[in-house]
Structure of Mg-protoporphyrin IX chelatase:
Amino acid sequence: MKTQPIYPFTAIVGQEKMKLALILNIINPTLSGVLIRGEKGTAKSTAVRALARILPAIPVVRDCPFQLPEGEADGVCRECSRIDCSRAILNSEPVDIHTRGIRVVELPVGATEDRVVGTMDLEHALKKGEKQVEPGILAAAHRGILYVDEVNLLDDHVVDVLLDSAAMGVNTIEREGVSFSHPARFTLVGTMNPEEGELRPQLLDRFGLCVHIEGIQDAEDRVAIMERRAAFDEDPESFCTAWEAESKVVVERIERAIALYPKVTIARDLLFTIAQCCLDVGVDGHRGDIIILKTAKTLAAWNGREEVEKADIDNAAELALPHRVRRQPLMEIADNVQALKKRTATR
Ligand SMILES: Nc1ncnc2c1ncn2[C@@H]1O[C@H](COP(=O)(O)OP(=O)(O)OP(=O)(O)O)[C@@H](O)[C@H]1O
């Protein structure tokens, strides 16, 4: 089946911070996702779909509702009696593996906890002694990107479940003491317009990175957006071909960074720099410190280095701190660390 052309990632004008936050989460999925706060129509969903499109394809057992590759399959398949392929895997029969692109799964507005987590048919379990599982959105999102538009309008409990899975990489479906777990490792991207209500600080804190996004103010760049979009709509295939070489450069850089990340080191005095930065802006808890450290290492890898520099910490703090700072009621979330420091100094 021919895939629909998607507006290319590299053709997105500006919005560098958002693009970088997305890329860093692809390189290092333990960054626990990105929250994109701000205006509508600023290429948020375009960027996510476009990034997924250029990432290397992955092997998946055909029709597996848990998106498993063959090697990861056994543990889950033993209990996934509903699916024919699991029997084949357990009997060491050949299974049909296919290669497909990274998926972007969108969480529908008003999704319930059952829809997100999945459900189990208890009657079937009691009668037949087999777990009959109805996989949820977290199963569909495994090894892909979960895009949650207007995350601030979701039920708090559902957001909690999403953030738990994003942090632990596992989802557990539980009914009356019967439980079923499956891997659920995905890049979580939440978007929200703060004018429509804030997320609770406890939930904000669990998004690894946060970027503020607004419409581009430069007239020339706005013209570039119009021209590029018009060119894409007129002839999507030629437009994508024209941007292919640039996309390849980004993908190769991501692949090099993924390979380099485990080798990245940081000098101990820079850990003190991170700790002091978090103390200066008044962060609750320690997630901020830990995420700055991981982000700084990921930035070093993205920049082709095996050692973290002070600039990586400054850039990481811009992405990891704005949503983690203690605020007074009705105070807006600051979008840069300088503003945070100033605010703390005048308290
Ligand atoms: N910086 C940009 N570069 C290229 N195209 C852009 C840019 N900003 C917006 N667009 C274009 O504007 C349109 C809206 O973008 P998109 O749907 O990605 O916005 P969004 O931020 O996801 O909006 P919403 O919050 O309403 O879901 C698309 O046609 C997209 O190509």
User: Anything to note?
Assistant: The domain at 262-345 is CATH 1.10.8.80 (Helicase, Ruva Protein; domain 3). The pocket of adenosine-5'-triphosphate is lined by residues 7, 12-15, 40-46, 149, 191, 216, 225, 228-229 (CB under 6 Å). Residues 223 and 229 are 10 Å apart (CA to CA).
